[in-house]
Amino acid sequence: MLKIRASLISLFLLGCTPKDQIKESQKLSYNICYSYTQGKCSSGTGFYLSYKEKTYLVSALHVFSGVNPNTNQPIIQNYPLPSQIRTSNLENGDPHFEYWPLKDAYGNIKYIKPDTTSIFYDLALLEVDLETQKNVLDWNDNWLTYSPKINEQVFYFGYPVINDNIPKIPRLFRGKITSLPSKDTSLITTDMNSFQGCSGSPVFTLQGNNIVLIGIVMGTFDDDNKNALIVPLPLVWGKIQVRK
Prior knowledge:
CATH topology: Thrombin, subunit H
Helix content: under 10%
Oligomer: single chain
Number of strands: 15
Strand content: 35-45%
Largest sheet: 9 strands, mixed
Shape: globular
Order of helices and strands: EEHEEEHEEEEEEEEEEH
Number of domains: 1
Mean pLDDT: 81
Radius of gyration: 17 Å
């Protein structure tokens, strides 16, 4: 069963229905603003993950770096790459913000990224010290051995930017897997929509009353094809060297 906690409080209870599990997983997704230009936020999505007694903010690598993985150019042209990011979601009906520096005092990046140059490994982790209650997903080793299937139902909550507007609460996207990783691509393709701002959203599938994290949203193939591409968790996790 998926374990999500606010501090030490379990939000996923034994016997919850799949509908309840999906509703509760909405609390995991946080909006990430990683740069500002003309008063607008360049937006992504992420989630907090507890792993080996540490807490990490997890998202797509390009959300942390501010660099387009396809062109290796800044996502926002003529603007400094982000030095910090801001996470937010609605807590008790009010927005709550946290700010996280992306570089240390020496200018070195603080987030952990895959040990590869492939654009398909678009995932990164930033170790954080949470002093306030947050909805945190507890790691489950079984995620790494789970094998998704064609036509399997999947879903995620993300913060799509539509007409320059970011929703106050994450929006639910549902669909099915249309193809699995192959020799041509390391990604999972789906028929779910994805928009700017959804990158980094955690993607889940239901197994009975249990929810399995299968990966994160990377983006789409192009502007005309809005189907979400998923970075598979088992594939990229082997390239992540989490600090002890």
